[in-house]
Every structure is written in C-alpha cells, then in structure tokens.
Design brief:
The protein is an alpha/beta fold and 315 residues long. Helices cover 39% and strands 20% of the residues. The chain has a six-stranded mixed beta sheet with strand order 6-7-8-3-9-10, with helices on both faces. Strands 2-1-4-5 form a four-stranded antiparallel beta sheet, with helices on one face. Helix 4 packs parallel to helix 7 (192-204). Bound molecules: adenosine-5'-triphosphate and magnesium ion.
C-alpha cells in the first residue's frame, strides 16, 4: 500500500438517485391542487375528520400519497399533522371518514394490525421502552415475517435460527444509525436525539412498505442529521414509501419529492417542494404560528427542538 493511500469514506447508504428520478418523473404531471389524484397512490383518504369537543383537529376531504415517494407533511403547530398520523395508523379513531393502504381498507383497524400490514410509524415524543436495552427495543420491532409460523415457534432449531436472524438484522441497523456502541445500554439512558434514531431503526425492523415519521429530526444532534437524511433517501431507493412531518424547511426541501401543507386541519396546498415553498398559502399558514421567521430559517428547527424539549420536560 503506498504512503499516500487514504482510506475511502464508508458509503453506508444507497447513493444512486434512480428512485428520486423515477418518482420525480411520475409526479411531474400531477396538478398542484389540494387533494389531487396521484398516478400510483398507496394511501387514499376520504372525508377524514376528527373533532375534540367543539374543535375540529382534522378535516381532510381527500388525500393521496404516492407510492415509493418521500412526502413531507408540513404546517404550523396545531395544524392536525400528528392527529392525522394517529388516525391513519389506528392510534386514534376518526369522527368520520375512510382510508385505504395498498388497496386495503384500514378504517377501524387496530394499530397492531396496521403495523403488520406494512405501515409503521414513529412518534413525535419517542416511545422507546426505557427499562429495556437498545437491542431489546430493536428485537421488539421485528414482526411476523414470511415463513414464520407456529411450527417454527415450536421447533427450537428453527426458532433459534429466527432469533439469530433478528439479532443480526438489529445489529446491522444499529450500526447504520451509529447506535451500536449503545447496544446493551438502557434506552432510558439515551439522549432525546438518540431515542429518535432508535425509534426509527426499530420501525425498520419489520421491513415496512411505508414508514411515517413524526418530526424525525427534532432533537437529533446536527452531526447525525446528515446520516438520518441519507437513510431516509435510501429507503426511497429500496422502494419504501415515506411520509414525514417536519418543521425544518431545509430538510423538507432537500429530501422530499412532494409536500402536503395542512393548516387548521385541512390540506391547503400540495406540490413539489420548490413550488410549495413559493406558494402564498404556505407562507400564510406558517406566518400564523411563526410571525417573525422566514420560510427556510433555521429558527423553525430551533423552535421545533425547543417545543420538543419543553414537552419532554413536562412529562
Ligand atoms: N387528545 C386530544 N384532545 C384534545 N385536543 C387534542 C388532542 N390531540 C390533539 N388535540 C388538538 O388538536 C389540534 C391538532 O393537534 P396536532 O397535535 O395534531 O397538531 P400538529 O400539527 O401535530 O402540531 P405540532 O406541529 O405542534 O406537533 C390541536 O389544537 C391540539 O391541541
Ligand atoms: Mg405534531
């Protein structure tokens, strides 16, 4: 080896952009109107509303999410983004409405069955189990896999092989999320940002068709955000559909193929990031909550982190 040989940087994520190019082409002819029909929708929601007492948190007439794309759901605090996630994933019940995932109706289906059908989500406030270790949390993310049945469960060699496979998959994901050094630590000892990473890594254990991430970047150390962005983009290269809620407009612009804007429970705009960011309705929606910040300002991210920290302290 010559003296000037430098070790190449590891490339942990898919670096091709074929997925992005394909999705961009598929969406290029879609009109920029709220509730527009998509060429290959994986989620289709109709007349979904959720009232809390006299307050309407969600009022979505029609929404379609394009398969294989990275879609950002943005909007000011209290717009209904998390409530919509809760409804679609079976963690809350709507006042009205129906929706389907991958051509199957998911209205009224329990959260556990939604996850088994291939749609998994993470939470704005993390739900890592603090009294379990990081690796135990990861193992819990593994769900029923093809070929796994009662017979497997009853035959120890098969069962042990499956356990080994789950552990290997968990260790591989932990390494990708740079959490391998924390493998045997209690999840409760992790920082807020590390718990967000653990939650996303755990969500991927079931090899989902679609992941829904509620503010994945909030509280994550800036040194790790780049790899998290890389990971989300590599999901698209694998054909996984991503829907994420985010206040950081840099991140939204950087990785999303399509942006849906909510305000006061409704979808008020949607389109490719560059179009949506130039839209007056979006600016108005944000100015409702962020009077003194410009779109694209880092203050939005800082604001998100502050809110998350305040909420975590109040728990
Ligand atoms: N369980 C609940 N009971 C009563 N009101 C609720 C409940 N959950 C949400 N809300 C209200 O519904 C509205 C939408 O809240 P939601 O959490 O969905 O907003 P969001 O867009 O996720 O906001 P943020 O960006 O702050 O996370 C808010 O006014 C909120 O106070
Ligand atoms: Mg929210």
């Amino acid at each position: 080896m010559s003296a000037d040989y430098t070790v190449p940087e590891p490339v942990p994520f898919a670096t091709t952009t074929a997925g992005r190019d394909r999705v961009t082409a598929d969406l290029s002819h879609v009109a920029r109107t709220p509730g527009v029909i998509k060429p290959d929708a994986i989620v289709v929601a109709d007349q979904v509303t959720r009232h809390f007492g006299g307050m309407t948190a969600v009022d979505v007439a029609h929404l379609e999410v394009q398969r294989g794309a990275i879609t950002a759901l943005i909007g000011p605090n209290g717009a209904g983004k998390t409530t919509l996630f809760n409804l679609l994933t079976g963690f809350d019940r709507p006042s009205t409405g129906t929706w389907s995932f991958d051509n199957r109706s998911l209205s009224g289906v329990s959260a556990a069955r939604v996850a088994r059908s291939g749609m998994v989500r993470t939470f704005q406030l993390t739900k890592a189990l603090s009294r379990m270790t990081v690796i135990e949390n990861m193992r819990l993310g593994a769900t029923h896999q093809p070929g796994e049945n009662l017979f497997t469960a009853l035959v120890p060699p098969l069962w042990r092989a499956r356990e080994k496979e789950i552990t290997e998959q968990a260790e591989e994901l932990l390494a990708r999320f740079k959490l391998d050094a924390k493998r045997d630590d209690y999840a409760g000892s992790l920082s807020g940002g590390q718990r967000k990473l653990l939650e996303m890594a755990r969500a991927l254990m079931s090899r989902p068709t679609m992941v829904m991430l509620d503010e994945p970047m909030a509280g994550v150390n800036p040194a790790l955000t780049q790899s998290l962005l890389g990971h989300i983009q590599s999901l698209r290269e694998d054909g996984t559909t991503v829907l994420f809620v985010e206040h950081d407009m840099h991140m939204v612009r950087h990785i999303s193929d399509w942006v849906v804007v909510m305000a006061e429970g409704r979808i008020v705009a949607e389109g490719p990031p560059e179009d949506v960011m130039a839209d007056q309705a979006v600016i108005d929606a944000y100015l409702g909550a962020h009077h003194d910040t410009d779109l694209g300002d880092d203050a939005l991210l800082e604001d998100g982190i502050e809110r998350l920290e305040a909420k975590e302290q109040n728990r």
